[in-house]
Structure formats: C-alpha cells, structure tokens
Amino acid sequence: MMLNAQSAASICDCRKEAEMNQKSTILYERLSREDGEDGVSNSILNQRKILEEYAERNNLIPYEHIQDDGYSGTNWNRPGWQKLIAEVEAGRVHTIVVKNLDRMGRDYLRVGLLFEQFSACSVRFIAISDGIDTFAGDDDFTPFRAILGEWYARDCSRKVKAVFKSKGQSGKPLTANLPYGFVKDPEDKTRWLIDECAASIVRRIFSMTIDGMGPFEIARMLTEEKVERPSFYMGSRGYGNHKSTYSEKNKFAWSCSTVTQILSKPEYCGHTVNFRSKRENFKTKKPTQIPEDEWLIFENTHPAIVSQEVWDTAKELRGTPRRTDTLGEANPLTGKIFCADCGEKLYNHRFRNPIVHKRSDGTTYTEKTPQDIYDCSTYKITKYKTGAECTPHHIRTAVVQDIILDILKRTSGYVREHEDEFVQRVRAQSEVRQGETAKSYQKQIAKNERRIAELEKIIRSLYEDKALGKIPEERYEDMSAGYLREQDELKQQTAAFQSELDAYNADSVRADKFIELVRQHINFETLTSGMVNEFISKIIVHEGSWTVDDDGGKGSRTQKVDVYLNYIGSFNVPDTRTAEEIEAERIADEQLQMRRKRNRGYARKAKEKRATKAAAEAEQIISETASDNPKPAA
Known about the structure:
Mean pLDDT is about 80; it is low at about 1-20 and about 35-40. This protein has 17 helices and 19 strands. α14 packs antiparallel against α15. The chain is α/β, with parallel strands linked by helices. Helix content is about 50%, strand content about 15%. Among the domains are: about 5-165, Resolvase, N-terminal catalytic domain (Rossmann fold), CATH 3.40.50; about 175-320, Alpha-Beta Complex (Hect, E3 ligase catalytic domain fold), CATH 3.90.1750.20; about 420-525.
C-alpha cells in the first residue's frame, strides 16, 4: 500500500519524537570563586531553580542535573563537564540548558568548537539569560558573548595576580599548604606554628645529612623504621595537598625526592619564600618554575625548625656528591680538600693493595690491605682531558683526620679555657685591632655625618644666592666645587670606616657562633662525619718534600696542610705549654725520628738482602740450565 506525503511526514515526526523521548535534558550549573559579587545570583541553588522552572515550562522532560561547584570557567577538566560531554558523545542527550553562556566556560575558541560538536550530535543548546537557542537559528551576538566571557576571566586573573603580588611583596606567605613540620595557628591563619612531632623528623633528616648520609640512604632508613611519610602524615590529619588522596597502603614509603625537597626549603630556618613559580596566562594551569636567584625571601618571619648554620651546612653537603665505593662507605672529607697549587679538589682513592706473603712450606698467599688516599684531581684525572699539569699532592686520609682531630682538640680546649682571649684574637684578624679604635671610628663617623649635613645646607644657600644675583656665576662654581669635593671625601671616608666597623662586628658574631658550636660538642676524642661537616670549611694540601738520611737514602716526608674552620678560618692556637712540656715533647719527637730512621735503615738492608738473594737464585738457575743443555760440538 502506498503512503501519501502527509502520512510519511507524520511517521517521521513520530520516530523523531520517539528518539527524543529516549534521550534526556541536562541542566548544567557551575559556580567558582571568580564570580565575585555575582555569587548570590549565580549560586548553585539559584541556578537549579531557574533551570528547573524553564525545563518544566517548555516540556524539556525528563531532565537531570550536572554541576561543577568551585571550578573556574577556564578549567575544562571539570568532572561535571567531562560527564556531560561523555553523555553527548554517547548519544543520550537532546538538550543542554544553562543559565547563561559563561556557565559553560570562558574560552571563546572552545565555546565555538563545542557549538559545532553539539550541532553534529543534534544536541540543542539553550542559554536562558542570553536568549540563545540553537534550534531557533544562529545568533550573531553569541561569539561576542563568548569573547566577553573570556575577557571577564582575563580581567579577574589580572586582579587576582595584582592582589597576590602585593601580598607576596609585603612578606606574607602565599602558599595555602604549609611545609611538613608546620601548622597554621587556629587563631591567625597567616601565622605558622611548629608541629613538634613532624619537626623532630625534619631535624633528624638535617642531622643525618650533616653526618654524611645521602637522601636515598635517609629515605631507606625512615622507611625501615616505619616513619609516616609527609603526604600521609598531613593528609590523615586534615591538612596539606593530600587530604583526600593519601593512601594507607604506602604510608611509610619515603622517597629520595621527598628528603631532597625537605633539605631544599629555606622555610625550615624561619624564612618566607614567595614567587617560586608562575603561570604564563590565565589559561595555563601548569606552573613554570622560577630560578632560585629570583625568589623573594623574607628572613625570620616564623619560628625556625633548624638554624641557618645547619641549613647552610646541609646545602653545601648536597652540592658535593658522596658516592659509596668498593669499601661500602663515602668519605666525609670529599669536597673539602683542595690542592694548594692548582686550586682543584683532591680526588679520593680507596682500594685494597695486594700483598704477597710466603708460608713456611714455600707456598704463597695474597692479602689485600685497604688503602685510603687523596690525590690532586688535575694530576690524576683532568690532565688526560685538558692537558693541565700539576703534582700528586699525595696524602693519606688517616693523616688528614689526625691533623683535623688535633686542631679541633687544641682549638676547643683553648676556647673553653680562654673564651674572652679567643674573641679578641678573632677580632684582631680584622683591620680594626682594638675596641678603642672602633670607638674612635664611631666618633669620626658621627662627626663626618654632621659636617656632610652642614655642607648640604651651605650648597643650597649658595644656589639661592646665585639665583637671586647676590654672587656671580664664576664665584658660585668655584665655591660649590670645593664644598662638593669635601662632601664626597667625607662620604668616602665614612663608608670606609663603616665597612671596617661592620667587619669588626661580624668577627664578633663569627666568634660567638664558633663558641656556641664548641659548646654543642662534649667529646673530641673521635672524629665523626658530623664534626667534619660542622667545623671544617676547607683543607688546603701542599706538595710534600723528602729529606735525605746521612747514608744517602730517602729520609722522612714532610707536608704542609692548612685547615680552615667554619666562622673563624685558619686559627693559630697560642702555645700554652710550659718549658718542661716543650722540652719533653722535643725529646719524644727526636726519639721518634731516630726510631723511624733505624726502621728505614733496616728496611733498606732487608730490601738489599732480598735483591742479592734473588740475583743469586737467578744466577744459579741460569747455570743449572746451561749445564743441563751443553752446547753441541762443532
């Protein structure tokens, strides 16, 4: 049976209506902090009410709500919006209704692409307040509304940046999540308090670093001891970046990067650090890291977990790699020993030197004796790459350790018994020798400042007299040039005096810091990695020289080593020994040198004896071989 055109059209309408009934209407709501004063009218509840009334009035049933509360319109990864797009692509949506166009988003390019996608999927889009309905035809003002929405987002971004910049430059912390070890004061959100439970772990991490342990080793130890990692510790207590993402599964899994981040934060010594990163524009969500020298740091703004000295020491140690070698440990002196001639670091060699021993039955066995020495890196390594020349500067690690321990014992003993004299000796290393000189400098600075102020008044008066015609131009120039010259000389002299006074006061501060460091250590009998890193700034090793014994053989080896201590540099401890003690030490040293000379003589004789014996054995072997193989007769 044939259908007429009217019947065919009615069947198509029925099918279309059936398909529409299988799809739903989505009422989409979005609200973010950028809405500002419009927050009341754009609230989620207000949007829901408006959308529901419109859907029921226009028979857009059934409908469902999808919302994004607290998401910016420049963020297109909103969970609600992603769900809406998934429904559209699955073909389960016939209409999308929003209050106004900017609820969908604030990027006019993306908005245009979305209109194309909705059209291709036969999805009707309605923005109630803007009068947009894609089934009613194109609206020429829709692109302009999208651009205005993006301009609004850009304007808000500029305002927020200006507020953050002003806040950051004033010294207030910009971070919303405090570093591990700190908590916010409940009464004042801008004030930081120390979380003692976490702070003890932070102090321990710095202490282990100063003791020579690396980040990987520290992380492994904390994991084995089942110490809660920072993300779990803070997240389980309701603050930090992981309040909803912390996992019970890996609550003790410390990583090397976590330890490194803790060691790199100046906040732990009481400083506020702002502008670590930035975003190129309001559309870019991924931050760009700013170089460390461009950070804005405000010192001593909150309680410190570790001192500045401890933080600086840990930072210096992290700058020098300390790798474990075949002996299973890292040398704490690495990075602190330098060559006196070329200035490069000394390279540490630790190996086992094989020694062949002979048993009573004639068989031999090899024993490996551990060796631990330092050589100039230019001589040992760099010369093959650059052709630079230097001498070995060979020195055993044990010798350097003995020298350091002796200096620390003598210096700490002198500090404890003669504290006032120690401070005066440190001060004496500066240009200002005595306190009376410092007082005279202060008086001269005050006198110069008064004279500079007087000269300023005189120069102004001269200029007024010249302007009023009381003195001629040539006379003004001669007089003002003399006064300006005197003023410049006084300023230069004042700056020089102030610089020397600053150095004098800095020497006092350095001496006090070293005294405090000595008080923190009770036992100087054994040299530890922590003592090396806390007390030693650098060690300069000179090339050694050999003496010649009376019999012409190689004698003893002498080598100069300069040890520079933190805060006070190279400090010569006064000799407080009595005449009897000096004489006793001289006699003991002579006896030691005589024993060493005898031992060297014995060693040379034994070597000569072994060489003679080896030569005789070789000659006997040659003669026996010759007798066993006589030459044939001619």
